[in-house]
Amino acid sequence: MVPQFLIDIWDSLKQTNIWIRIGLASILLVVLIGLSFWQKTKLESKLIWSFIRGTIQVVLFGSILGLIFDIRKLWILYLILFLMCLFAAFTNARSYPYPRMFLIGFFAITSSSIVIMTLVMFSYIVPGFDGIIPNETGTITGLTGEYVIPIGSMVISFAMRVSGIAIERVKSDIIKSKGSIEAALALGDKPSRAIQNILCDSYRAGLTPTINRVASLGIVTIPGLMAGMIIGGVPPVEAAIYQVVIFLMLLSSSFITSIITNVLFTKQFFTEKQQFDIIFLNKIAKLENQTTGTLLKDRWKNWREKMKRKKNDDETTD
After folding, report:
1. In terms of domains, do 116 and 234 share one?
2. Does residue 97 form part of some domain?
3. What pTM, to 2 d.p., does this model score?
4. Does 257 share its domain with 140?
5. Is it the case that residue 84 has pLDDT exceeding 80?
6. Of 159-163, 283-287, 299-303, which has the strongest mean pLDDT?
7. pLDDT band at residue 19 under the 50/70/90 scheme
8. What is the mean pLDDT of the chain?
9. Helix, strand, coil proportions of the chain in percent (round to 5)?
10. Are residue 161 and residue 176 in the same domain, yes or no?
C-alpha cells in the first residue's frame, strides 16, 4: 500500500500551476547561472544541483510536516519537542565543544523550552490557538502539531543560538579577566560575585539584538512570520499581535536558557575551595587551539584506537 503522503505529493505535482511557478522561478536561476559564467566563478553546476536538491527536499519535508501537523496527542507533541531539544543540544555541543556542554545545553534548552511551550499549550496566549483547554463542546480543537511544532522549533532554535553566544562570551571574558577574578577571590568574594559583571555582559550580548528587533517592529522591519500570515490572509492586527507574542516567547526562553547554561558552565571554572580549576582552564585552552574539525577527527581516532586495543585484549584473553 502506497503511503498517503506520497499520494499527496503526486496529486500536488499533477497541478499545472505548480510547474508554471517553478518555471517562472527558474528564470532567476538562469540569471544566476549567467552571472556565474560571466564572472567565471565556476558555480554553475552547484547552483543547478542545489536548486534541484533543495526543491526535492523541501517537497518531502512539507509532506512530512503535513503528517506531523495532524498530531493531536499531547505525549507525542512533547516527545517531538524533547527530540528537538536533544538535537539542539547536540548541535550546540559540536559548535562549542567544551566539557559537559551537551548535558548542560540539553538541560538548559529543555527546561526553558518545555516551560514556555507548556504555557502556550495550556493557555489562550497565541491568537487563533485555543490551547488544550476544552471548548464548550468538551473537545480539544487547538492542540495540533500545526501550532505546537512550528512555535516550538522557533523557541528551541532561538534558545540554542542565544545560549551559544552567551557561553562563548562568558568563556572569553573569564579568561581575559583571570587576574581580576583571582584578586576578587583572594579578597573573599565568592565565584558567583566575582564574575557577576561578566555574566551580565554575556546576557546583554545574547539578548540585545533581539531587543533591538522588537523595538524596530513595524517601522524598520516586518518579520517573516508576520509577513507570511498577512500574505496568507490573516488580518494585519492579528498577525502583529501574534508576532509580538512570539518575540516575547523567544526572549523569555533564550534568557532562561542563557542563565541556566552560564551558571552551570561557569561552575566548572572553580574548585570547591573557590579557586580557579587549573585542569579545566587547561582543557579550555587546548580546545581553543583546535578547530572543530580537528577535534572531531581526534575523537574519532581515539575511539578507533580504543576499540582496536579492546579487540587485541580480547584476542589475548582467548
Report:
1. yes
2. yes
3. 0.70
4. yes
5. yes
6. 159-163
7. confident
8. 78
9. 80, 0, 20
10. yes
Cell numbers given for 255: 534568557
DSSP conformation letters of 88-102: HHHHHHHHS--TTHH
Regarding whether 87 and 231 lie in a shared domain, the answer is yes
Do 162 and 85 belong to one domain?
A: yes
Cβ distance 266 to 191 under 8 Å?
Answer: yes
pLDDT at 109: 92
In whole angstroms, give the CA distance from residue 142 to residue 94: 36
Structural domain that includes position 164: 72-276
Tell me what pLDDT residue 140 has.
47
CA angle 286, 291, 297 (to 5 degrees): 95
Cell of 250: 523567544
Tell the residue number behind the cell numbers 499527496, with chain if given.
8
Question: Residue 309 falls within a domain, yes or no?
Answer: no
Grid coordinates belonging to 171? 568563556
Q: Are residues 55 and 86 in the same domain?
A: no
* Residue at grid coordinates 512539507: 62
Position 306 in a domain: no
Same structural domain, 210 and 94:
yes
Helices 145-176 and 178-186 sit at what angle, rounded to 10 degrees? 80
The answer to whether residue 9 sits within a structural domain is: yes
Amino acid identity of residue 1, one-letter, is M
In sequence order, the β-bridge partners of residue 276 are: 270
- Whether the pLDDT of residue 291 is over 60: the answer is no
